[in-house]
């Protein structure tokens, strides 16, 4: 009976190791990012930095800087991400990164800059006049 469990464990380990090694560093980073596992993302970026695509390296850096409370670095890395890779981020990721950028600006005390970013996004929403009427409060 014990031999059966050991054999099953070894089989499971061999299969999971094979599947893990077949994934690219970008895929592993993307999975960690989507699962909100920022410690794994950090480890992947640290150990496999050269295997990551430039886009994924910058995207991961932006996330890591934000979630490990490095707002000055996060502002810089998110701005680079948006300027260099904004066209391939997609709408949802772009909006998330803009929101994260505003949050990081607020964290370093640049409240007007954070407010301007949010209002510039709101201004692009159709029928946003009511929302923008609160701007001068």
Mean pLDDT: 83
Oligomer: single chain
The radius of gyration is 20 Å
What portion of residues is helical? over 70%
Work out the strand percent: under 5%
The helix-strand sequence is HHHHHHHH
Tally of contiguous helical segments:
8
Overall outline = elongated
For the terminal residues, how far apart are their CA atoms? Answer: 72 Å
Structural class: mainly alpha
The major pleated sheet works out as: none
> What's the count of strands?
0
Uncertain runs? 17-21
Question: Which key terms come to mind for this protein?
Answer:
single chain, about 140 residues, mainly alpha, about 80% helix
In short:
The chain is mainly α and 137 residues long. It is 78% helix and 0% strand.
Structure description:
With 137 residues, this protein is mainly alpha-helical. It has helices at 2-22, 25-34, 38-47, 54-67, 71-89, 91-107, 111-122, 129-132. α2 (25-34) runs parallel beside α4, α4 runs antiparallel to α5 (71-89) and α6 (91-107) packs antiparallel against α7 (111-122). The longest helix has 21 residues, at 2-22. It is elongated and about 50 Å long. The chain starts with a helix and ends in a 5-residue tail after the last helix. Residues 17-21 have low confidence and may be disordered.
């Amino acid at each position: 009976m014990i031999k059966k469990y050991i054999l099953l464990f070894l089989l499971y380990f061999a299969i999971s190791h094979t599947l893990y090694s077949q994934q690219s560093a970008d895929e592993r980073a993307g999975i960690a990012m989507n699962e909100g596992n920022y410690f794994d993302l950090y480890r992947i970026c640290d150990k496999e930095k050269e295997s990551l695509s430039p886009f994924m390296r910058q995207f991961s850096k932006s996330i890591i800087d934000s979630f490990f409370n490095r707002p000055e670095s996060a502002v810089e890395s998110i701005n680079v991400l948006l300027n260099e890779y904004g066209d391939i981020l997609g709408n949802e990721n772009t909006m998330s990164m803009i929101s994260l950028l505003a949050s990081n600006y607020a964290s370093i005390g640049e409240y007007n800059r954070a407010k301007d970013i949010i209002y510039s996004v709101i201004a692009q929403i159709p029928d946003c006049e009511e929302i923008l009427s609160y701007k001068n409060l």
